[in-house]
Design goal:
Pathway: Carbohydrate degradation. The protein has 210 residues and is of the alpha/beta class. The protein has one domain: Alpha-Beta Barrel (TIM Barrel). It contains 8 helices and 8 strands. An 8-stranded parallel sheet has the order 1-8-7-6-5-4-3-2. Helix 2 runs parallel beside helix 3. The longest helix has 16 residues. The termini are close together.
Length: 210
């Protein structure tokens, strides 16, 4: 089980200090929002470059933006180790997957709560990761939507059908209780923001999730 603390809930005034509080995490989830695909605006490649300068952790970059191809290269050059974009943001997801892979990084596809897993059937054999949003993307601190568990189960079954052992990631409302539900459904990566960073001891929260 990979725990990926989300910097959306970190202290943006001192990200270096926030990362120092979650050193045991293998991945750091980087939420990129453009104010168009989702209402909020967060960070760009310059912040990723700053993060890269003081951590060796995997920077799991989640592009919640309208035009992922326009910016993917800049994020990879800044230090992103993985790029995930939204199925709903593009007209030809397979083309986007293949072009981002040419940048030399694993590629994930993310779906909003109202998007059916079956929408991904034609591209599941080409992705390295599927990110199930268990809240509406764009804001931190939301409650977990239980229907995400059924999506995770369906994606777990489809691994055998498409013969691709992609990672299944879940993001939104993750705590010790919802993490257990997701793990039992087959999830590989847990993204947690508020649960980790809104605690006086983020490392203990990571251990609780483990």
């Amino acid at each position: 089980m990979i725990i990926a603390p989300s910097i959306l809930s970190a202290d943006f005034g001192n990200l270096q200090e926030s990362l120092s509080q979650v050193k045991s995490a293998k991945w750091i989830h980087v939420d990129v929002m453009d104010g168009h695909f989702v209402p909020n605006i967060t960070i760009g490649p310059v912040v990723v470059k700053g993060l890269r300068s003081y951590t060796d952790q995997v920077l799991d970059t989640h592009l919640m933006i309208d035009n992922p191809l326009q910016y993917a290269k800049a994020f990879v050059e800044a230090g992103s180790d993985r790029i995930t974009f939204h199925y709903e943001a593009v007209n030809d997801p397979l083309k986007v997957i293949r072009e981002i892979k040419q940048l030399g990084v694993p590629v994930g596809i993310s779906i909003k709560p109202k998007t059916d897993v079956k929408s991904l059937l034609t591209i599941l054999e080409d992705v390295d990761l599927v990110l199930v949003m268990s809240v509406e993307p764009g804001f931190g601190g939301q409650s977990f939507m239980p229907e995400a568990v059924e999506k995770i189960k369906e994606l777990t079954t489809l691994k055998k059908v498409v013969k691709n052992n992609y990672l299944i990631e879940v993001d939104g409302g993750i705590n010790k209780n919802t993490a257990k539900l997701c793990k039992e459904a087959g999830v590989d990566v847990l993204v947690a923001g508020s649960y980790i960073f809104n605690s006086p001891n983020p490392e203990s929260q990571i251990e609780d999730l483990r």
